[in-house]
Amino acid sequence: MKTSVKILILLLFSISACSETVDSEYVSLDAARKANAIRTGLIPEWLPETSRLIKVAFDIGTNEKLVAFQYKSAEGWNPLKICKQIDPFDAPKAQLSRSWWPEDVPANQASTPRHTFYTCENGKSFLAAHPKVGQAFYWKTR
After folding, report:
1. CA–CA dist 133, 116 (Å, integer)
2. Fewest CB atoms within 10 A around its CB: which of 57, 69, 94, 123?
3. pTM of this prediction?
4. What pLDDT is attached to residue 7?
C-alpha cells in the first residue's frame, strides 16, 4: 500500500511539472473580446476588425503562443503599422505545434514562402500574413 501511494505521489509531481497548454477558438474578434482574450493578452489587440476563425494555443509555463486567424483581405489591413517586415528565413520556429499550424510557417528551405513575414513587439513575436487569401499566423516565442 505504501509503495502504491509513493508511486501515485511521484506521478502527480511529474505531471504537475509539465507545462500546461490551453487551446481556444473564437468565431470572430467580437467573440474574442467578449471572452476577454484581448484584455488578458491571449491574442494581440491589433488583429484586423474582420478577424474570424481565430485559433489559439497558449503554453502557460513558457508564455509561448500560436494564433491563427482569417480576415477580409479587402479590409486593407497593413501589418507594417505594427510590425517590421523581415526575411522569411529570419523568423524562428515555435516550440508549440498544432495540426492547424502550417508547416511552412516559419519559412523553411523545403518550400517557397507563401507569406510575408514580420517581427512584432520589438522582436518578441512574429507574424506571417497572406493578404491575398486573408490568412495570418502570429506566434510568440519564449
Report:
1. 12
2. 123
3. 0.84
4. 40
- Round to whole Å and give the CA distance between 95 and 14: 20
Q: Are strands 116-120 and 83-86 parallel, antiparallel or unpaired?
A: antiparallel
Instruction: Look at the block and give the residue holding cell 528565413.
Output: 89
Grid cell for residue 77: 489591413
Q: Which residue blocks in the chain are alpha helix, DSSP H? A: 2-17, 29-34
User: Could you tell me the mean pLDDT of each successive run of 10 residues in the chain, 142 residues long?
Assistant: 42 50 96 96 94 97 96 87 94 94 90 91 93 93 80
Burial class of residue 36 (count of CB atoms within 10 Å of its CB; 0-12, 13-18, 19+) = exposed
